[in-house]
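Example for tutorial group B:
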């Protein structure tokens, strides 16, 4: 579980760095990459936390 949290944190950091590169250079490839990483990271995080909530019960 700790490994998954670190992976999510690192992927969010990668997306943030990508957006910073886009702000610095103006190249669209950095913004596109940042959105892709952010989208899949958030989907994985929501899935992970949904499983945690389901394990505990409602």
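The residue assignment follows.
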């Amino acid at each position: 579980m700790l490994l998954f949290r670190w992976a999510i944190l690192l992927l969010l950091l990668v997306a943030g760095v990508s957006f910073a590169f886009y702000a610095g250079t103006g190249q669209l490839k950095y913004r596109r990459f940042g959105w892709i990483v952010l989208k899949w990271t958030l989907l994985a995080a929501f899935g992970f936390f949904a499983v945690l909530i389901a394990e505990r019960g409602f």
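The mean pLDDT is 93. Compare this with the pattern of hydrophobic and polar residues in the output above.
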